[in-house]
Amino acid sequence: MINRRDLLVGGGAAAAAYLAGSFVPLVAQNAPNFGAPSVVQVGYRRQQMGDMEVIALNDGVTRRPLAAEFVRNTPLDQVQALLRSQNLPTDYIDVPYTAFLIVMGNRRVLIDTGFSDNGGPTTGRLVSNLNAAGYKVEDIDTVILSHFHGDHINGVRNKAGQLVFPNAKIMVPTVEYDFWMDDARMAAAPEAMKGAFANVRRVMGGLGADRLVKFVPGTEIIRGANSLKSVAAFGHTPGHTLFVAQSYRFKFAYLADLTNIPQLFARNPDMAVVFDMDAAAAREVRRKVFEMTVQENMTAGGFHFPFPAFGRIEKLGNGYDFKPVA
Ligand SMILES: [Zn+2]
Question: How close is the Cα of 147 to the center of ligand 1, in Å?
Fold first, then answer.
């Protein structure tokens, strides 16, 4: 993957392809006329894996109308048929948001952050769920961001501009940071994408060297018997990065936005969600990583997976099935 980097984030055609892609708006709002989705009542779930603890922390859910643009490369009736086959509604999609806390020795590492108070009324629950799980915002020593879409980074700062996790270093993939913080690229971006660039500046602006830590995807974040490794999975965004936490034989893979809801994009990994900025690269890495989780017997979690948002990935037909932990 590393040698794809130049291809994916260099100038020219690759960057242009990303800029033509879509973006996640700053504020998540529920679609009018479809009612509000129900937020899970107990929005955290913990699992002991060897010496580490993995805790899913739900930030909320939003509902969007299902229209033709949601899956770019598949006719709407085929998308609806796949939903119907799983007894799911076909006129709207509920997209949940679940980050993960990895507790390893004396480390408390939060991966992705949700919206804080920057989103709509059915988001912003992460901190109360963190508290319910027995931790305070002060306990978090590291926040790692998988990529810079708003639903992943907005929880770093509240609307007033304060850092939500006062003692945490903010770790970001270098490739992702360089893409979004490039002022020339922002200036050249289509009007519809400028908000996403501005939002990255809202969150990252003013983070000093004592706070912000950049890492090259592929490097180890925590070393030793209990380890946390970053894995390049570029495509959804130019620097989209996954994480594998391991303790003894137990492996937990945080898949971030490798797929949007697995009911569509694990079942059919070739489907391209509107948010994939480079759909072809995203599709290729999606199949590769799903295969890895199966081969290496990993527990897998995803930011948009149905709560508790982690479980097993199993082969099914030409795709995969996500089986949440019981
Ligand atoms: Zn995303």
Answer: 7
CA of 248 to the centre of ligand 1 (A): 30
What is the CA(78)–ligand 1 centre distance, in A?
23
Q: Is pLDDT of 238 > 90?
A: yes
Domain that holds residue 31: 2-324
Q: Are the beta carbons of 35 and 297 closer than 8 angstroms?
A: no
Q: How far is the CA of 23 from the centre of ligand 1 (A)?
A: 8
Give the helix/strand (H/E) hosting 271.
Answer: none
What average pLDDT does the structure give for the chain?
Answer: 92
Chain segment 154-197, per-residue pLDDT in tens: 999 999 999 999 999 999 999 999 999 999 999 999 999 999 99
Ligand 1 centroid from CA 24, angstroms: 7
Q: Does the predicted TM-score (pTM) go above 0.85?
A: yes
Which residues have beta carbons under 5 A from ligand 1 (an ion)? 149, 257
Question: How many domains are contained in the chain?
Answer: 1
Residue range 271-292: mean pLDDT, rounded:
96
C-alpha of residue 251 to centroid of ligand 1, in Å = 23
Q: What are phi and psi of 292, to 5 degrees?
A: -60, -45
Q: Give long-range contacts, CB 8 A cutoff, 24+ apart: 225-228.
A: 225/51, 226/50, 226/51, 226/52, 226/104, 226/105, 228/102, 228/104, 228/109
Distance 236 CA to ligand 1 centre (A): 7
Q: What is the distance between the alpha carbons of residues 31 and 101, in angstroms, rounded to a whole number?
A: 30
Q: What angle (nearest 5°) sits at the alpha carbon of residue 223, between those of residues 221 and 226?
A: 105
CATH number at residue 78: 3.60.15.10
